[in-house]
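Ticket #4471: structure export looks truncated?
Reporter: QA, pipeline team
Priority: medium

Steps to reproduce: submit the single chain below to the structure queue and open the exported record.
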Amino acid sequence: MPAAESRSIRPIAEQTDSRPPPDAYVAQRAAAEWSVLSLDELRTCGLSPDQVTHRLKKGWLHRVYPAVYAVGHPSLSMQGRLLAAVKSIGRGAVLSHFSAAALWGFVEWDDRHPEVTVPRTRAECRSGIRVHRTSVLDPCDVTRREGIPVTSAARTLVDLAAVVNYRLLRRAVRQAQSLRLVNVPQLVSTLRRLGARRDARNLNRILATGPAPTRTELEDMVFDLILDSGLTRPDVNKPLLLAGRRLIPDFRWPEQQVVVEADGGAWHDNQIAREDDAERQALLEEHGERVLRVTWSQAITRSGETVARIRAAGVPLSRGSRVGLFGL
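Actual output as written to the record:
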């Protein structure tokens, strides 16, 4: 055998191991888990307890909760924080209550302690995590969102009723409806299945008004003003096709062809938005719709005058209503 050829062949025992190092597995898995891995997951990737300790000292891993670590850096996203809490509590735990509502997009996350529900009567507590225990957590109550185990949209809102006030719960329910993630029958069904709950009073009060998929707090304010004044209930954010263009009026009475638009600064206080509003209004009016615009100031400080404008446009009082809240 030629010398050159003999040098190119090494004994099998000396050949390089082709398997990736454990850190490669850690990085790959962390990328799919919001940079958060449990101790068991790190061991599955091939790290021994001593190797985990070494990486903690080197700053490659960062402890979030006992046996739960951030990989590479300690600055976790909201999703990473929430997933870390679920992993810390362990098998069967799901994100719930306010934390679940934030993950679904029903409320704004405010950096409070994550909330997790477990389907058992006892669970180990964790500092910095609020643990809820339940005897009812059916398969239909559990799903995954953005890779995180979480209560379903309907179960989230039912649980949320126990930890927030009426106004925030109402905003969350209406936002969930606007996102088309839940509807009234689903919420009613979930409430009935879970049985009597003293904390469901506010949710029942909200559901009694029927579907109301508002998108902003100003829309909430205007919609409640309409209902409290005794006016006929309008369509809420119901798509309308005009001249091949899909429009979504905030509130509309189809029979009277009256539209009310809630003009909040966040949506309408720039040149492009104002031009779009003008174009929408012209198209609506061209097709026989009468468009009224209501600002924050008009809804709050001139509520009686605002209701009078809507009534003058042709919107009647609902059946059985007397004069309405404002005596108009």
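Status: closed, not a bug. The export was complete when the record was re-opened. Leaving a note from the reviewer for reference: The chain has three domains: 20-75, 77-210, 217-312.
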